[in-house]
Amino acid sequence: MALEGLLEGFQVAFSWQGIIFVLIGVVTGTLIGMMPGLGPISAIAIMIPITYGMNPSIALVMMAGVYYGAVFGGSTSSILLNAPGISGTVATAFDGYPMAQRGEAGKALAIAAVSSFVGGTVSVVLLMLFAPALAQVAVSFGPAQYFALMLLGLTAISSLSDGSTVKALIAATVGFIVATIGIDGQTGTNRYTFGNPNLMEGIDFLVIALGLFALAEVCALILTRKDRSLSKQSDIGNLKLNKSDFKEMRGPMTRQSFLGFLLGVLPGAGATIASFIGYISEKRIAKKPDEFGKGSVKGLSAPETANNAATSGAFVPLLSLGIPGSGTTAVMLGAFLALGIQPGPLLIQDRPDVFWGIIASMYIGNVFLLILNLPLIPYIAKILKISRPMLIALVITFSIIGVYSISFSTFDLYLLLAFGVLGYLMRLFSFPAPPFILAFILGGMMEQSFRQAMTASGGSMTVFIQDPISIALLVVSILSLAFGFIKRDNKQTNSQQQDDETLSR
């Protein structure tokens, strides 16, 4: 039955209509993903009216292409401009942008393209094999398990900073505070709004991401405009990856393809958490963790593999249960319903052409993305050859357009400026920005999961230690945090010993 359905899906995907519309989808998604502010959610929402009257299978195959094409394209602005357009590519900038700064932009884009292709392809195979079974695993995660999973993600704060752990924790605390701004969805209480109606809906992720990363970078570029040592940043370098690069990428691509897919299957986790956990887990097991954040091949390959693997994984709960796993798949659910298709347990029986057609089309889409992006890297990377004043103007313009297109609010533009100044000051005083953005992203979801778990248990904290999954996640979280402090203390002790030895000579 499954084999017949899969063959029917391949017939849809390999028809001339299927191939053309997959191509249109991935090209559109890649172009939109490169622009900060126009992520996959906006792209799919815009294309829903365009699909009216189309064959539902072909229309959904095209929109799936837009989705994973946008995630693929989002890495470009992160690497070249340090301006992540979507939350799933924030971790890509940690090592991708330092590589571009030292004249290896072409190599960074090639690593991102290959890693994305591997992560996407492996996850499609896993999606084809385990979609119905994994849907049952996904529903076994309740609020307590999700809270423990988010806590595990937060223990990475010490891993996301090379300097003071205290400063990283301060940055994370501020990120938590910012995440709580707005009306409390459960009690209706205003939190940190100070009577300002513009803050009642909270602060959008893009305002913070573009402020802390893109505008902070603009401030640094302006202040170092006379520094000639940065002239090599305009070189894209060699595009070819050598054996050493592939050797370094092999481990992260293998591990994060599976881990990213599994995290993508969990409703609410998605590409963002997958990319952060992918980055953190590779740094934890790396022999040279100090290279992370300074242009590490592993540090770039891991989040790119994980976020693309999670993109395919997010289709498991959507197709098998009718439950959207992220904001983007929620819009995809709307697209399904607009086309008269009801995702859920009966989809695989009632519309195998749609269920298997989407899965089969991902094989073609990933090949298209690789074929299209690798030859285009020299042209895409030419953005770095733009003169510095022009580049500064472009980053500011794209940031303003990206933020204003979300809310059409001038107040958000003031917030963008404020977070840009805050990002530069954090950089100036060595406060790391990644813990801030991680705490902001996870803060809202953690609070919601915590409240749901407490409500379900009648206020008893024992709900978090009643299930083996949540217990295991909590234990790993504690060990992970403790290991981070111990490792840092040992590093400081060794550094002190080396200094003493140097002075005694």
UniProtKB/TrEMBL annotation:
InterPro entries xrefs: DUF112_TM
Bilayer-crossing regions: 12-32, 44-67, 79-97, 109-131, 137-157, 203-223, 258-280, 354-377, 389-407, 413-442, 463-486
Annotated DUF112 domain residues: 19-438
Pfam families recorded: TctA
Keywords: Membrane, Transmembrane, Transmembrane helix
Top-rank taxon, per record: Bacteria
Protein name from the UniProt record: Tripartite tricarboxylate transporter TctA
